[in-house]
Prior knowledge:
- The chain has helices spanning 11-22, 36-46, 58-66, 112-115, 119-130, 137-150, 156-166, 186-202, 225-228, 276-284, 287-293, 295-298, and strands at residues 2-3, 70-73, 80-87, 107-111, 167-169, 178-180, 214-218, 232-235, 241-247, 254-262, 266-273.
- The protein is an alpha+beta fold.
- Among the domains are: 2-30 and 119-180, no CATH class; 194-298, TATA-Binding Protein, CATH 3.30.310.
- The strands form three sheets. It has a five-stranded antiparallel β-sheet with strand order 7-11-10-9-8. A three-stranded antiparallel β-sheet has the order 1-6-5. Strands 2-3-4 form a three-stranded antiparallel β-sheet.
- Helix 1 (11-22) runs antiparallel to helix 7 and helix 5 (119-130) crosses helix 8.
Amino acid sequence: MSEIYGRFSDKGQFLTEALNLVGDLGGAHLQPTKSVGSLRSRAASTYRGDRQPWQTEWIWFKDLTMAKRRPAHCALCGELRLVTREHVVPRGLYPDSKANSRFQRIVIPTCGTCNNGTSDDDAHFRNVVSIAGDANPAVKELWDGPIRRSFGQVDGRRRALDIYALMQPVPRDPSNRYQVYPGRDPRILCTLRKIVRGLSHHHGLRSAVGDDEVFADVLKANVPDEIVLSLQSTDAEPDILTYRYGRIEDSAGLESGWLLRFYERTMFIGLVFESAEAKRRLEAAGELARLQADIAQSIGP
Length: 301
């Protein structure tokens, strides 16, 4: 549970502002987006009749999507396939001002199967986490830049309504404030699990961690400061993502634990299991709630 970014303390105010950007409810003012999908459609529609491939946009499209692929083991599934570089922390989480940052972004090799179809969830993750608490300067820049612009794209109305659906009134609060619950959204948790899987590869803990081998949720337990400080600490730019991690030595079925903090306030926990079966076994026994409560005692330095 997180109290939403203060400028949207009124749920109707958020929806009004978002939908003003995308036009009326019928979508009459929506503008087409320059996505890879639209490029594919455009290229396919251009190739007709006796026109040769080099007279169309198809060759350009093929070069755009294939040029940087190379054979290697995918960091997420472990298969030997054609891979491209994938950002572990979605690029959309960074505001435009970070474009010239000297910080080395975390990238891993991933295949098309693992990499495709996640950009929509990545954008949703950014939108929700950006309002899940007080806004630091990076969040304010995101909202006034990429997020607002995204509401003007062809799918902008859907994105706005996705956020609107997550906003819940604070019980017994006369000021009519609202909160969001990122841990209740499967798309948020799916993106978070993918980030943990990528970080596990990046830090040399284990590669090819399956999605069904990871548990992720909003952090619901207080972890003592002395334990947090004993974990290895790093960041993907301090105002975007800081995280701590460590191997779990004394809990059967578990490999590593992760504490991730986005935009200097929204905390998540991740647990990597030895196998999907180990995770299912602990879930069936009701142990995941206990593990989250005492994760500080389970993670070694």
